[in-house]
Amino acid sequence: MSDYKDIIRKPETLNWFKAALGMKITRDCLLDIVKVVIKECYDNIRIEIEKQRDGVLRSIVCNTCSTANVLHCNPENKCCNHGKCVFHKTDKTKKCPYNLCHKICEQIVKQHRFCNHNRLESCKGPTWINTDATLWCYDPWQIAKCYLSKDGYTDKNSAEETDFAGIINVIINCEYFQKYFKDDLTPFN
Predict the structure, then answer these.
(1) Which InterPro entries does the UniProt entry name for this protein (predicted)?
(2) Helices (H) and strands (E) in the chain — how many of each?
(3) Contact 49, 56 (CB under 8 A)
């Protein structure tokens, strides 16, 4: 036990503790901001969808489309493997009954900083495996989860459950956050 006390007292160890505490404090400070901006991003997505030629009113909501229903089977979407994937095994791609979920999906792609905005099928950006499309109209954090890395965030259903790296990923990967920064966030990924 005395060996551990000696390790804890070392300056290098104390610096690691200070760094961890600094990350926790920074994450906690960013948490409320990220939640507000993601809600604003969701509202903006709905406004953009309503403005489209065959737009869907903001009052319309859907909870019937699963993520697999909205996505095309494609190994580059980080959910599928070559051939028949597990993700699409039970749920086939189908049209949203309200013509809404596919439009939300397109808007998520448009907001992703590192995505080819012209081709949804070949988009490598959003991490669809993290999100639950049945909740897109009710929970803006489900949209934020598309901007997280694919590992370790599937079960994180709120900003409060998300670690420092996840919060930073949302800020960097979702272009909507760029309007709150003077510097370009693109080089940080």
Answers:
(1) DUF4559
(2) 6, 0
(3) yes
Could you tell me where the DSSP H helices lie in 55-99? 67-70
Question: What is the pLDDT tens value at each position of the chain, 189 positions in all?
Answer: 567 777 778 888 889 989 999 999 999 999 999 999 999 999 999 999 999 988 899 899 999 998 888 887 776 666 666 556 766 666 666 788 998 999 999 999 999 988 765 555 555 678 888 999 999 999 999 999 999 988 889 999 999 999 999 999 999 999 999 999 888 887 765
Query: How far, in Å, CA of 189 to CA of 25, rounded?
Result: 22
Longest CA span, the chain: 71
Domain count within the chain = 1
Report pTM: 0.84
107 neighbors 45 (Cβ within 8 angstroms): yes
Residue 57 domain-assigned?
yes
Secondary structure of residue 60 in the 3-state scheme: coil
